[in-house]
């Protein structure tokens, strides 16, 4: 299952999330230059439980290194797909959590989740001399927070079925519940020796749930509102999800809605619309003309119902506009 986006749009750009992705990208480029499989880098900046429990190994590392490794490990990755997968999941789930708690708290939340994930891994692998690297534990914490805060949000998910791309909208609690179950099965079953820190994923997820609950008890200090004034989005997502409804009069046309920002309505834009209805073609290009108004209908020819003996109906998208200027 590959998440494409969640259906709850945020009002502001995710500054902290994008900053973490940017820093992680710079570190990954540096890893590629030095050698992605450089063991010296992995042992120096990765999290190695034996640094703290085995005197022979501990002697090779300074106190500063031992204190920094539980943080630096989450910015390293073991390969291209490891890096891309982690950053994509952070991009999908991070923006909603950042909007909920603000960019400054989000950075602290992310780092704490990564730290607690490392601690969880340490408890169950305290003598391991294998370096653990990757942002998975911290991102699992973001997913745990999402699981509690937005359980009924729909996640547009791509499920490859042979050569057919199947697009389905899955409630977040189902998607994340399946993900957590897979981590647990791997941690307790045959996947335990596969070189993946499954318990760090589990610990990060549970830590995220605990920390986001604690956050509700902390007073707000108003920094987020100040930042929001400068980060408010000017454009809606490129990809829109439409669940069409039937014509009340019983015709062959179908009706849906598309949400634009005031800037997009003024200048015009191009969007991709996906309709989760199985193996049929489900992604369409929509050209929105400049000057479109709220309530206008955009017609997609032939995308309505098909009734024997009648020409195919159309899909009519009603325009809604937010952030009116």
TrEMBL record:
It is a multi-pass membrane protein. Residues 260-322 form the Chaperone DnaJ C-terminal domain. InterPro entries: DnaJ_C, HSP40/DnaJ_pept-bd, Peptidase_S54_rhomboid_dom, Rhomboid-like_sf, Rhomboid_protease_S54. GO terms for molecular function: serine-type endopeptidase activity; unfolded protein binding. The keyword Transmembrane helix applies. One of its GO terms (cellular component) is membrane. GO terms for biological process: protein folding. Pfam families: DnaJ_C (PF01556), Rhomboid (PF01694). The chain crosses the membrane at residues 12-33, 71-94, 106-124, 130-149, 161-185, 197-216. It is found in: Membrane. It comes from the Bacteria. Keywords: Membrane, Transmembrane, Transmembrane helix. Residues 69-213 form the Peptidase S54 rhomboid domain. The keyword Manganese does not apply. This is Putative membrane protein.
């Amino acid at each position: 299952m590959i998440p494409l986006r969640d259906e709850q749009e945020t009002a502001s750009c995710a500054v902290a999330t994008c900053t973490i992705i940017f820093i992680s990208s710079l570190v990954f480029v540096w890893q590629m230059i030095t050698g992605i499989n450089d063991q010296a880098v992995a042992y120096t900046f990765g999290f190695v439980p034996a640094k703290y429990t085995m005197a022979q190994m501990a002697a090779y590392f300074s106190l500063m290194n031992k204190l920094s490794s539980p943080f630096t490990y989450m910015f390293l990755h073991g390969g291209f797909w490891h890096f891309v997968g982690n950053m994509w999941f952070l991009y999908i789930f991070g923006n909603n959590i950042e909007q909920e708690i603000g960019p400054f708290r989000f950075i602290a939340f992310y780092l704490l989740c990564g730290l607690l994930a490392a601690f969880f891994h340490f408890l169950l692998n305290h003598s391991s001399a294998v370096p653990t690297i990757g942002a998975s534990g911290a991102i699992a914490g973001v997913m745990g927070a999402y699981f509690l805060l937005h359980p009924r949000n729909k996640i547009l998910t791509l499920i490859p079925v042979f050569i057919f791309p199947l697009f389905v909208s899955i409630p977040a609690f189902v998607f994340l519940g399946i993900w957590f179950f897979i981590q647990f099965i791997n941690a307790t079953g045959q996947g335990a020796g596969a070189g993946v820190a499954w318990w760090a994923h589990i610990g990060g997820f549970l830590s995220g749930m605990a920390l986001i609950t604690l956050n509700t008890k902390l007073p707000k200090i108003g920094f987020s509102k100040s930042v929001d004034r400068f980060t408010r989005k000017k454009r809606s997502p490129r990809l829109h999800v439409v669940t069409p409804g039937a014509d009340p009069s019983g015709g062959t046309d179908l009706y849906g809605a598309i949400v634009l920002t005031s800037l997009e309505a003024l200048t015009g834009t191009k969007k991709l619309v996906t309709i989760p209805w199985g193996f049929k073609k489900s992604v369409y290009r929509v050209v929105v003309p400049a000057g479109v108004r709220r309530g206008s209908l955009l017609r997609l020819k032939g995308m309505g119902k098909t009734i024997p003996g009648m020409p195919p109906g159309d899909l009519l998208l009603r325009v809604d506009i937010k952030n009116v200027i």
